[in-house]
Amino acid sequence: MKLLTPTQDSRDIINAASKCLDVIWREGRRYQKAGIMLGDFSSRGIAQLNLFDESAPRADSERLMALLDTLNAKEGKGTLYFAGQGIQQPWQMKREMLSPRYTTRISDVLRVK
């Protein structure tokens, strides 16, 4: 599914993933994850809106997503999350081999004495 207008709102992306699952759903089959491919990036605030898109951009979406990211960065991942994710997450991504993030985390920058 291609989003008709650019978004950085997780609610829009989750909604699109749910619609895709509704299309492919077959009773009796097991489904685990939704994959998302990102492309056709555009600068924030500069986008051609689509005449046929039924959903208008959400008011204060940018502020809400920034607040969500800030609180999760400050208080720990998973402090705030969307209800559809559920309370208990039995599966966790393996992070033992995670590469250092020198350009985005000051705590990952090497210290030389």
UniProtKB/TrEMBL annotation:
GO terms for biological process: DNA repair. Keywords: Nucleotidyltransferase, Transferase. The keyword Iron-sulfur does not apply. The keyword Magnesium does not apply. Residues 62-112 form the DUF4113 domain. It comes from the Bacteria. One of its GO terms (molecular function) is DNA-directed DNA polymerase activity. It is an enzyme of class 2 (transferase). This is DNA polymerase V subunit UmuC. It comes from Enterobacter cancerogenus.
